[in-house]
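Quick one before lunch.
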Amino acid sequence: MTDFFKNIPQIKYEGPESTNEFAFRHYDPDEEILGKRMEDHLRFAVAYWHSLAWQGGDPFGGPTFERPWYADTMDAARLKADVAFEMFDILGTPFYAFHDLDARPEGKTFAESKRNLEEIVDYIGTKQTDHKAKLLWGTANMFTHRRWMAGAATNPDPEVYAYAAATVKTCLDATLKLGGQNYVLWGGREGYETLLNTDLKRERAQAGRFLQQVVEYAHKIGFKGTILIEPKPQEPSKHQYDYDVSTVYGFLKDFGLEKEVKVNIEQGHAILAGHSFEHEIATAAALGIFGSIDMNRNDYQSGWDTDQFPNNHAEVAVAYYEILRAGGYTTGGTNFDAKVRRQSLDPADLILAHVGGMDTCARGLRAAAYMLEDGPLEAARNARYAGWDREGAKAMLAQPLDVIEKAVIDNNINPQPRSGRQERLENLWNHYL
Ligand code: XUL
Ligand code: CO
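Model of the D-xylulose complex:
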Protein backbone atom coordinates (compact mmCIF):
# COMPACT_ATOMS: atom_id res chain seq x y z
CA MET A 1 0.00 0.00 0.00
CA THR A 2 1.20 3.52 -0.73
CA ASP A 3 0.12 6.34 1.56
CA PHE A 4 -1.14 8.61 -1.22
CA PHE A 5 -4.82 8.16 -0.40
CA LYS A 6 -4.25 7.75 3.34
CA ASN A 7 -7.37 8.28 5.48
CA ILE A 8 -9.65 8.04 2.43
CA PRO A 9 -12.11 5.20 2.93
CA GLN A 10 -13.56 2.91 0.30
CA ILE A 11 -16.60 4.65 -1.13
CA LYS A 12 -19.87 2.84 -0.42
CA TYR A 13 -23.47 3.52 -1.32
CA GLU A 14 -25.28 5.22 1.56
CA GLY A 15 -28.34 6.65 -0.19
CA PRO A 16 -29.56 10.18 -1.04
CA GLU A 17 -29.95 11.22 2.59
CA SER A 18 -26.30 10.60 3.45
CA THR A 19 -24.26 13.63 4.48
CA ASN A 20 -20.97 11.72 4.19
CA GLU A 21 -19.05 13.20 1.25
CA PHE A 22 -17.04 9.98 0.97
CA ALA A 23 -20.15 8.00 0.04
CA PHE A 24 -22.28 7.45 -3.03
CA ARG A 25 -25.73 8.94 -2.74
CA HIS A 26 -27.04 7.60 -6.04
CA TYR A 27 -24.58 5.04 -7.42
CA ASP A 28 -25.61 1.70 -6.01
CA PRO A 29 -23.73 -0.91 -8.05
CA ASP A 30 -26.16 -3.68 -7.12
CA GLU A 31 -29.38 -1.81 -7.80
CA GLU A 32 -31.31 -3.52 -10.54
CA ILE A 33 -32.37 -1.36 -13.45
CA LEU A 34 -34.21 -2.87 -16.41
CA GLY A 35 -33.10 -6.32 -15.28
CA LYS A 36 -29.41 -5.48 -15.01
CA ARG A 37 -27.16 -4.29 -12.17
CA MET A 38 -26.35 -0.59 -12.26
CA GLU A 39 -22.63 -1.37 -12.33
CA ASP A 40 -23.13 -3.53 -15.42
CA HIS A 41 -25.11 -0.81 -17.16
CA LEU A 42 -22.67 2.01 -16.48
CA ARG A 43 -19.36 0.15 -16.73
CA PHE A 44 -17.35 3.04 -15.27
CA ALA A 45 -13.70 3.55 -16.18
CA VAL A 46 -11.06 5.90 -14.74
CA ALA A 47 -8.81 7.62 -17.28
CA TYR A 48 -5.15 7.13 -16.37
CA TRP A 49 -4.08 10.22 -18.28
CA HIS A 50 -6.17 12.78 -16.45
CA SER A 51 -6.07 11.30 -12.98
CA LEU A 52 -2.51 10.01 -12.82
CA ALA A 53 -0.40 11.46 -15.62
CA TRP A 54 -1.65 15.03 -16.09
CA GLN A 55 0.29 17.43 -13.89
CA GLY A 56 -2.02 20.45 -13.86
CA GLY A 57 -0.38 22.53 -16.57
CA ASP A 58 -2.29 24.87 -18.87
CA PRO A 59 -1.23 27.12 -21.79
CA PHE A 60 -0.24 29.83 -19.28
CA GLY A 61 1.43 27.88 -16.54
CA GLY A 62 3.27 24.70 -15.66
CA PRO A 63 2.40 21.85 -13.32
CA THR A 64 0.43 22.58 -10.17
CA PHE A 65 0.21 19.06 -8.79
CA GLU A 66 3.03 17.40 -6.91
CA ARG A 67 2.89 13.63 -7.00
CA PRO A 68 5.68 11.29 -5.95
CA TRP A 69 5.50 9.42 -9.29
CA TYR A 70 6.29 12.41 -11.52
CA ALA A 71 9.59 11.12 -12.89
CA ASP A 72 10.56 9.41 -16.14
CA THR A 73 11.65 6.14 -14.56
CA MET A 74 10.26 2.64 -14.35
CA ASP A 75 10.16 2.89 -10.55
CA ALA A 76 7.93 5.93 -10.86
CA ALA A 77 5.75 4.13 -13.41
CA ARG A 78 5.29 1.23 -10.99
CA LEU A 79 4.40 3.60 -8.14
CA LYS A 80 1.89 5.30 -10.43
CA ALA A 81 0.31 1.91 -11.19
CA ASP A 82 0.17 1.09 -7.47
CA VAL A 83 -1.65 4.34 -6.75
CA ALA A 84 -3.90 3.87 -9.79
CA PHE A 85 -5.19 0.52 -8.55
CA GLU A 86 -5.63 1.90 -5.02
CA MET A 87 -7.79 4.61 -6.58
CA PHE A 88 -9.86 2.08 -8.58
CA ASP A 89 -10.33 0.06 -5.37
CA ILE A 90 -11.50 3.10 -3.40
CA LEU A 91 -14.03 3.97 -6.10
CA GLY A 92 -15.00 0.41 -6.94
CA THR A 93 -14.76 1.22 -10.65
CA PRO A 94 -14.73 -1.95 -12.76
CA PHE A 95 -12.52 -0.48 -15.50
CA TYR A 96 -9.73 1.92 -16.41
CA ALA A 97 -8.26 3.16 -19.70
CA PHE A 98 -4.75 4.27 -20.62
CA HIS A 99 -2.38 5.47 -23.35
CA ASP A 100 1.10 3.97 -23.60
CA LEU A 101 2.60 7.31 -22.57
CA ASP A 102 0.45 7.53 -19.42
CA ALA A 103 1.82 4.31 -18.04
CA ARG A 104 5.48 4.08 -19.12
CA PRO A 105 8.40 6.49 -19.49
CA GLU A 106 9.27 7.48 -23.04
CA GLY A 107 12.48 5.75 -24.15
CA LYS A 108 15.33 7.30 -26.11
CA THR A 109 14.49 4.96 -28.99
CA PHE A 110 11.39 3.16 -30.19
CA ALA A 111 12.84 -0.13 -28.94
CA GLU A 112 13.36 1.30 -25.45
CA SER A 113 9.81 2.71 -25.32
CA LYS A 114 8.52 -0.69 -26.39
CA ARG A 115 10.52 -2.45 -23.65
CA ASN A 116 9.22 0.01 -21.06
CA LEU A 117 5.66 -0.60 -22.19
CA GLU A 118 6.03 -4.37 -22.06
CA GLU A 119 7.54 -4.19 -18.59
CA ILE A 120 4.79 -1.97 -17.19
CA VAL A 121 2.08 -4.03 -18.89
CA ASP A 122 3.40 -7.11 -17.09
CA TYR A 123 3.31 -5.18 -13.84
CA ILE A 124 -0.22 -3.87 -14.47
CA GLY A 125 -1.24 -7.41 -15.42
CA THR A 126 -0.30 -8.65 -11.94
CA LYS A 127 -2.25 -5.74 -10.45
CA GLN A 128 -5.33 -6.76 -12.45
CA THR A 129 -5.10 -10.25 -10.98
CA ASP A 130 -5.18 -8.91 -7.42
CA HIS A 131 -7.71 -6.12 -7.94
CA LYS A 132 -11.16 -5.72 -9.41
CA ALA A 133 -10.47 -3.16 -12.17
CA LYS A 134 -9.91 -4.43 -15.70
CA LEU A 135 -8.92 -2.66 -18.90
CA LEU A 136 -11.81 -1.03 -20.79
CA TRP A 137 -9.52 0.20 -23.54
CA GLY A 138 -5.96 0.83 -24.46
CA THR A 139 -4.67 3.44 -26.88
CA ALA A 140 -1.53 5.12 -28.19
CA ASN A 141 -0.60 8.69 -27.46
CA MET A 142 0.35 9.97 -30.90
CA PHE A 143 -0.08 13.67 -30.22
CA THR A 144 2.20 14.80 -27.34
CA HIS A 145 5.75 14.18 -28.60
CA ARG A 146 7.04 16.65 -31.20
CA ARG A 147 7.43 13.86 -33.78
CA TRP A 148 3.62 13.84 -34.10
CA MET A 149 3.21 17.58 -34.65
CA ALA A 150 2.12 17.13 -38.30
CA GLY A 151 0.07 14.02 -37.59
CA ALA A 152 0.72 10.31 -37.12
CA ALA A 153 -0.94 8.25 -39.89
CA THR A 154 -1.59 11.42 -41.90
CA ASN A 155 1.97 12.74 -41.59
CA PRO A 156 3.72 13.89 -44.80
CA ASP A 157 6.83 11.98 -43.63
CA PRO A 158 6.63 8.19 -44.22
CA GLU A 159 9.01 7.61 -41.30
CA VAL A 160 6.40 9.07 -38.96
CA TYR A 161 3.77 6.80 -40.55
CA ALA A 162 6.08 3.86 -39.82
CA TYR A 163 6.61 5.01 -36.22
CA ALA A 164 2.84 5.36 -35.80
CA ALA A 165 2.14 1.90 -37.24
CA ALA A 166 4.77 0.35 -34.97
CA THR A 167 3.40 2.27 -31.97
CA VAL A 168 -0.18 1.11 -32.51
CA LYS A 169 1.11 -2.44 -32.93
CA THR A 170 2.74 -2.34 -29.50
CA CYS A 171 -0.37 -0.80 -27.94
CA LEU A 172 -2.67 -3.40 -29.50
CA ASP A 173 -0.34 -6.10 -28.17
CA ALA A 174 -0.51 -4.47 -24.72
CA THR A 175 -4.31 -4.19 -24.87
CA LEU A 176 -4.63 -7.83 -25.89
CA LYS A 177 -2.29 -8.95 -23.12
CA LEU A 178 -4.31 -7.08 -20.50
CA GLY A 179 -7.61 -8.43 -21.82
CA GLY A 180 -8.76 -4.96 -22.92
CA GLN A 181 -12.31 -4.92 -24.24
CA ASN A 182 -11.72 -2.17 -26.80
CA TYR A 183 -8.93 -0.33 -28.57
CA VAL A 184 -9.38 3.40 -29.19
CA LEU A 185 -7.90 5.64 -31.86
CA TRP A 186 -8.37 9.33 -31.26
CA GLY A 187 -6.78 11.28 -34.09
CA GLY A 188 -5.42 14.16 -32.03
CA ARG A 189 -3.19 15.53 -34.76
CA GLU A 190 -4.77 13.71 -37.70
CA GLY A 191 -5.89 16.91 -39.34
CA TYR A 192 -4.29 20.12 -40.50
CA GLU A 193 -3.34 23.61 -39.45
CA THR A 194 -3.49 25.15 -42.94
CA LEU A 195 -4.59 23.81 -46.32
CA LEU A 196 -1.74 25.83 -47.85
CA ASN A 197 0.71 23.08 -46.87
CA THR A 198 -1.69 20.13 -46.82
CA ASP A 199 -2.66 17.50 -49.39
CA LEU A 200 -6.02 16.67 -47.82
CA LYS A 201 -6.88 13.91 -50.29
CA ARG A 202 -3.59 12.10 -49.71
CA GLU A 203 -3.79 12.44 -45.93
CA ARG A 204 -7.32 11.05 -45.87
CA ALA A 205 -6.21 8.07 -47.97
CA GLN A 206 -3.26 7.48 -45.63
CA ALA A 207 -5.59 7.53 -42.61
CA GLY A 208 -7.88 5.02 -44.32
CA ARG A 209 -5.10 2.60 -45.17
CA PHE A 210 -3.65 2.96 -41.68
CA LEU A 211 -6.96 2.00 -40.09
CA GLN A 212 -7.23 -1.01 -42.40
CA GLN A 213 -3.74 -2.09 -41.29
CA VAL A 214 -4.76 -1.69 -37.65
CA VAL A 215 -7.84 -3.87 -38.19
CA GLU A 216 -5.79 -6.45 -40.12
CA TYR A 217 -3.28 -6.66 -37.28
CA ALA A 218 -6.03 -6.91 -34.64
CA HIS A 219 -7.41 -9.92 -36.53
CA LYS A 220 -3.94 -11.40 -36.94
CA ILE A 221 -3.27 -11.46 -33.19
CA GLY A 222 -6.81 -12.59 -32.34
CA PHE A 223 -7.90 -9.39 -30.62
CA LYS A 224 -11.61 -9.92 -29.96
CA GLY A 225 -12.35 -6.45 -28.61
CA THR A 226 -13.87 -3.55 -30.51
CA ILE A 227 -11.79 -1.01 -32.41
CA LEU A 228 -13.15 2.46 -31.76
CA ILE A 229 -12.55 5.82 -33.43
CA GLU A 230 -13.09 8.82 -31.17
CA PRO A 231 -14.43 11.76 -33.20
CA LYS A 232 -13.47 15.36 -32.44
CA PRO A 233 -13.77 18.33 -34.80
CA GLN A 234 -10.73 20.34 -33.77
CA GLU A 235 -8.21 20.91 -30.96
CA PRO A 236 -5.33 20.38 -31.09
CA SER A 237 -5.54 20.49 -34.93
CA LYS A 238 -7.41 23.38 -36.49
CA HIS A 239 -9.44 20.79 -38.40
CA GLN A 240 -9.51 17.11 -37.50
CA TYR A 241 -10.52 14.53 -40.08
CA ASP A 242 -12.65 12.51 -37.62
CA TYR A 243 -14.93 15.52 -37.19
CA ASP A 244 -18.04 13.85 -35.81
CA VAL A 245 -19.91 10.54 -35.92
CA SER A 246 -21.39 11.09 -39.38
CA THR A 247 -18.03 12.05 -40.84
CA VAL A 248 -16.41 8.98 -39.31
CA TYR A 249 -19.15 6.77 -40.75
CA GLY A 250 -18.56 8.14 -44.25
CA PHE A 251 -14.84 7.52 -43.80
CA LEU A 252 -15.40 3.94 -42.59
CA LYS A 253 -17.69 3.21 -45.55
CA ASP A 254 -15.09 4.57 -47.93
CA PHE A 255 -12.48 2.17 -46.62
CA GLY A 256 -14.78 -0.83 -46.12
CA LEU A 257 -14.49 -0.70 -42.34
CA GLU A 258 -18.05 0.07 -41.21
CA LYS A 259 -18.50 -3.45 -39.88
CA GLU A 260 -15.09 -3.51 -38.19
CA VAL A 261 -14.87 -0.20 -36.37
CA LYS A 262 -17.27 1.65 -34.06
CA VAL A 263 -17.10 4.98 -32.26
CA ASN A 264 -16.18 6.22 -28.82
CA ILE A 265 -18.26 9.37 -28.35
CA GLU A 266 -17.15 12.10 -25.99
CA GLN A 267 -19.58 14.65 -24.57
CA GLY A 268 -17.21 17.61 -24.97
CA HIS A 269 -16.24 16.64 -28.51
CA ALA A 270 -19.91 16.47 -29.53
CA ILE A 271 -20.41 20.00 -28.20
CA LEU A 272 -17.32 21.27 -30.07
CA ALA A 273 -18.78 19.78 -33.27
CA GLY A 274 -21.98 21.77 -32.74
CA HIS A 275 -24.00 18.73 -31.68
CA SER A 276 -25.52 17.51 -28.47
CA PHE A 277 -24.07 14.39 -26.86
CA GLU A 278 -27.35 12.55 -27.36
CA HIS A 279 -27.38 13.49 -31.05
CA GLU A 280 -24.01 11.82 -31.54
CA ILE A 281 -25.07 8.72 -29.62
CA ALA A 282 -28.36 8.43 -31.53
CA THR A 283 -26.54 8.91 -34.85
CA ALA A 284 -24.04 6.18 -34.03
CA ALA A 285 -26.82 3.85 -32.92
CA ALA A 286 -28.77 4.51 -36.13
CA LEU A 287 -25.67 3.74 -38.21
CA GLY A 288 -24.81 0.62 -36.22
CA ILE A 289 -21.49 1.95 -34.94
CA PHE A 290 -22.20 2.88 -31.33
CA GLY A 291 -19.41 1.57 -29.11
CA SER A 292 -18.52 3.48 -25.97
CA ILE A 293 -18.53 6.93 -24.38
CA ASP A 294 -16.07 9.35 -22.85
CA MET A 295 -18.07 11.09 -20.17
CA ASN A 296 -17.27 14.67 -19.27
CA ARG A 297 -18.64 18.15 -19.79
CA ASN A 298 -17.41 21.37 -21.33
CA ASP A 299 -17.69 24.79 -19.81
CA TYR A 300 -20.53 26.64 -21.53
CA GLN A 301 -18.58 29.88 -21.87
CA SER A 302 -15.05 28.88 -22.78
CA GLY A 303 -15.64 27.17 -26.15
CA TRP A 304 -12.85 24.64 -25.73
CA ASP A 305 -12.44 21.11 -24.47
CA THR A 306 -12.35 21.61 -20.70
CA ASP A 307 -12.87 17.93 -19.78
CA GLN A 308 -14.75 18.62 -16.56
CA PHE A 309 -16.59 15.99 -14.58
CA PRO A 310 -20.31 15.78 -15.37
CA ASN A 311 -22.58 17.33 -12.74
CA ASN A 312 -25.84 17.80 -14.57
CA HIS A 313 -27.96 14.69 -14.33
CA ALA A 314 -30.67 16.12 -16.57
CA GLU A 315 -28.21 16.31 -19.46
CA VAL A 316 -26.74 12.95 -18.65
CA ALA A 317 -30.23 11.39 -18.53
CA VAL A 318 -30.96 12.07 -22.19
CA ALA A 319 -27.56 10.63 -23.17
CA TYR A 320 -28.23 7.39 -21.26
CA TYR A 321 -31.76 7.36 -22.66
CA GLU A 322 -30.26 7.07 -26.15
CA ILE A 323 -27.78 4.44 -24.95
CA LEU A 324 -30.59 2.37 -23.43
CA ARG A 325 -32.71 2.78 -26.56
CA ALA A 326 -29.72 1.46 -28.50
CA GLY A 327 -29.64 -1.62 -26.27
CA GLY A 328 -26.88 -0.47 -23.88
CA TYR A 329 -23.18 -1.20 -24.08
CA THR A 330 -21.68 -4.42 -25.33
CA THR A 331 -17.91 -3.98 -24.95
CA GLY A 332 -18.18 -0.24 -24.26
CA GLY A 333 -18.48 1.69 -21.03
CA THR A 334 -18.55 5.10 -19.38
CA ASN A 335 -14.98 6.33 -19.31
CA PHE A 336 -14.40 9.49 -17.28
CA ASP A 337 -12.31 11.47 -19.73
CA ALA A 338 -12.40 14.24 -17.15
CA LYS A 339 -9.88 16.01 -15.01
CA VAL A 340 -10.02 17.97 -11.78
CA ARG A 341 -9.26 21.68 -12.10
CA ARG A 342 -5.61 22.66 -11.65
CA GLN A 343 -6.31 24.18 -8.23
CA SER A 344 -7.77 20.90 -6.99
CA LEU A 345 -4.52 19.69 -5.51
CA ASP A 346 -5.60 17.14 -2.94
CA PRO A 347 -5.87 13.38 -3.36
CA ALA A 348 -9.39 13.74 -1.96
CA ASP A 349 -10.30 16.05 -4.87
CA LEU A 350 -9.43 13.27 -7.29
CA ILE A 351 -11.64 10.78 -5.50
CA LEU A 352 -14.57 13.12 -4.90
CA ALA A 353 -14.58 14.31 -8.51
CA HIS A 354 -15.22 10.72 -9.54
CA VAL A 355 -17.77 10.18 -6.77
CA GLY A 356 -19.73 13.18 -8.05
CA GLY A 357 -19.43 12.03 -11.66
CA MET A 358 -20.54 8.52 -10.80
CA ASP A 359 -23.51 9.79 -8.80
CA THR A 360 -24.49 12.12 -11.64
CA CYS A 361 -24.38 9.24 -14.12
CA ALA A 362 -26.32 6.97 -11.76
CA ARG A 363 -29.09 9.57 -11.43
CA GLY A 364 -29.07 10.04 -15.19
CA LEU A 365 -29.28 6.31 -15.85
CA ARG A 366 -32.10 5.83 -13.37
CA ALA A 367 -34.09 8.66 -14.98
CA ALA A 368 -33.33 7.30 -18.45
CA ALA A 369 -34.62 3.86 -17.53
CA TYR A 370 -37.78 5.44 -16.13
CA MET A 371 -38.22 7.49 -19.34
CA LEU A 372 -37.97 4.31 -21.35
CA GLU A 373 -39.99 2.04 -19.11
CA ASP A 374 -42.87 4.25 -18.10
CA GLY A 375 -44.30 4.51 -21.57
CA PRO A 376 -45.60 8.01 -22.37
CA LEU A 377 -42.43 9.17 -24.11
CA GLU A 378 -42.09 6.07 -26.27
CA ALA A 379 -45.85 6.07 -26.90
CA ALA A 380 -45.74 9.71 -28.06
CA ARG A 381 -42.91 8.96 -30.46
CA ASN A 382 -44.71 5.90 -31.84
CA ALA A 383 -47.91 7.88 -32.25
CA ARG A 384 -46.01 10.55 -34.19
CA TYR A 385 -44.98 8.01 -36.82
CA ALA A 386 -48.18 5.92 -36.74
CA GLY A 387 -49.21 7.19 -40.18
CA TRP A 388 -46.51 5.02 -41.68
CA ASP A 389 -48.36 1.91 -40.48
CA ARG A 390 -51.43 2.87 -42.49
CA GLU A 391 -52.31 0.93 -45.61
CA GLY A 392 -50.09 1.84 -48.57
CA ALA A 393 -47.79 4.23 -46.72
CA LYS A 394 -44.65 2.09 -46.87
CA ALA A 395 -45.47 0.82 -50.37
CA MET A 396 -45.00 4.41 -51.56
CA LEU A 397 -41.27 4.13 -50.86
CA ALA A 398 -40.97 1.71 -53.78
CA GLN A 399 -43.01 3.79 -56.21
CA PRO A 400 -41.88 6.31 -58.83
CA LEU A 401 -42.77 9.96 -58.25
CA ASP A 402 -45.41 10.06 -61.02
CA VAL A 403 -47.34 7.20 -59.39
CA ILE A 404 -47.21 9.01 -56.07
CA GLU A 405 -48.39 12.19 -57.75
CA LYS A 406 -51.41 10.37 -59.18
CA ALA A 407 -52.27 8.99 -55.73
CA VAL A 408 -52.08 12.46 -54.19
CA ILE A 409 -54.53 13.78 -56.80
CA ASP A 410 -56.86 10.76 -56.86
CA ASN A 411 -57.13 10.60 -53.07
CA ASN A 412 -57.19 14.36 -52.63
CA ILE A 413 -54.32 14.12 -50.13
CA ASN A 414 -54.13 17.29 -48.03
CA PRO A 415 -51.84 16.80 -44.98
CA GLN A 416 -52.87 18.46 -41.72
CA PRO A 417 -49.93 19.52 -39.49
CA ARG A 418 -49.94 18.16 -35.93
CA SER A 419 -48.22 19.43 -32.81
CA GLY A 420 -44.73 18.09 -32.12
CA ARG A 421 -45.62 18.44 -28.38
CA GLN A 422 -42.04 19.36 -27.51
CA GLU A 423 -42.76 21.22 -24.27
CA ARG A 424 -45.08 18.48 -23.05
CA LEU A 425 -42.32 15.93 -23.69
CA GLU A 426 -39.76 18.15 -21.97
CA ASN A 427 -42.10 18.31 -18.98
CA LEU A 428 -42.10 14.52 -18.94
CA TRP A 429 -38.28 14.44 -19.08
CA ASN A 430 -38.23 16.81 -16.10
CA HIS A 431 -40.78 14.62 -14.29
CA TYR A 432 -38.59 11.53 -14.66
CA LEU A 433 -35.57 13.25 -13.08
C1 XUL B 1 -8.73 14.23 -26.20
C2 XUL B 1 -9.30 12.93 -25.81
C3 XUL B 1 -8.36 11.81 -25.63
C4 XUL B 1 -8.87 10.49 -26.04
C5 XUL B 1 -7.87 9.38 -25.98
O1 XUL B 1 -9.65 15.24 -26.37
O2 XUL B 1 -10.48 12.83 -25.60
O3 XUL B 1 -7.97 11.79 -24.30
O4 XUL B 1 -9.97 10.12 -25.29
O5 XUL B 1 -6.73 9.63 -26.71
CO1 CO C 1 -11.68 11.27 -24.99
